[in-house]
Amino acid sequence: MTTEQLNRLRWQCRRGLLELDLVLERFLEKHGDQLQGERLNSFQTLLAYTDDELWDLVRARTECRETRLAEVVQWMRECRDRTDSQGI
Known about the structure:
This protein has 5 helices and no strands. It is an all-alpha fold.
C-alpha cells in the first residue's frame, strides 16, 4: 500500500464517534501494513457502514455475518480491547 492510499484510509477512518476514531487509528497503526487484497476490500466495506453499525460490530453487540469480514472485525475488536483497558 502506498503512502497516499494509507492517507486516504486514515481520512476515511475519521468518524463522528471518538471511541470509534481511536479504535480505527490503533487498527491502522497495528494492521495497516497487512491491508492488501481481500483484507483491504473487507476494511473498505466496513468503513462504508454507519458509525452505529460499525461500533456495534467492534463492541460485539452484533455478530459479523459476513465471513469475509470476520478477520478484520476481530482485529478491530482487539484494538478496542486495548482502548478499553486504557480507560478510554
